Amino acid sequence: MEENEIVRSLSALAHPVRLRVFRALVVAGREGMLPGTMAEGLGIPANTLSFHLKELAHAGLVTQERASRNIIYRAAFSHMNAVLGYLTENCCQGAECSIDVASAACPC
Fold first, then answer.
1. How does pLDDT run along the chain (108 residues), one tens digit per residue?
2. 63 φ, ψ to 5°?
């Protein structure tokens, strides 16, 4: 991953509401969530949620899929794993790491 992508992702998560939304989508897993369900569950007004979902999507952290008249949002696990991999790439000061970073990634 390029450094600019990492910065964009971390910047998106540096807002409390976006962090809560992203974590809710991680918990929802591959099934994802509808915006109305998220707004109700997190106590966030729909227009505010829409703005934050747009920012998370722009950062590559969420995907959206149209299902009839609904839009299903999902956490982009591959992107999240790439960000985590970038952050932990040199966790052992260049020496062989005792932790297998690939197996520590989310399998979703």
1. 899 999 999 999 999 999 999 999 999 999 999 999 999 999 999 999 999 999 999 999 999 999 899 999 999 999 999 999 888 887 777 666 666 655 656 666
2. -115, 160
Cβ pair 53, 62 in contact under 8 A: yes
Distance of CA 98 to the CA centre of its chain: 26
pTM metric for this prediction: 0.85
Residue 42: which residues within 8 A CB-CB, separation 6 or more?
Answer: 17, 20, 21, 24, 49
Sign, Cα dihedral of 57, 60, 63, 64: positive
Q: What distance in Å separates the CA atoms of residue 67 and residue 2, rounded to the nearest whole number?
A: 32
Count up the domains in the chain and report the number. Answer: 1
**For 5, what's the count of Cα atoms within 13 Å in the CB-facing half-sphere?**
14
Residue 43 structural domain? 3-104
- 12: domain CATH number is 1.10.10.10
